[in-house]
Amino acid sequence: LRGGGRNDHSRLQNAVTLLQESFSKTLNDRREFDPRAPLDENGSKKAGVLFIVNQLFAMYFRLNTLRLCKNLVRPVESRNLNKSGKMGEMVTYRY
Prior knowledge:
It is built from 4 helices and no strands. By secondary structure, it is mainly α. The longest helix has 22 residues, at 6-27.
């Protein structure tokens, strides 16, 4: 988002909307989540929750809307999804 133009801001807001929809769909996947299971099309979508959350954190920071982070933290931590996944994603989430 170099230049900080209005067009960039609106594009970032559109990206946030798309990622929020993806977050909702991955979080509400009905398949049982097993962090040790290999990633494939038959696995749970919840494996991607931390990646999406981390991307949304970065976008919220750029948009100066950090208050929205709490809407992501509550469901992730209530389901203990922050304690399993790729090490890099867990470190980014905790940071």
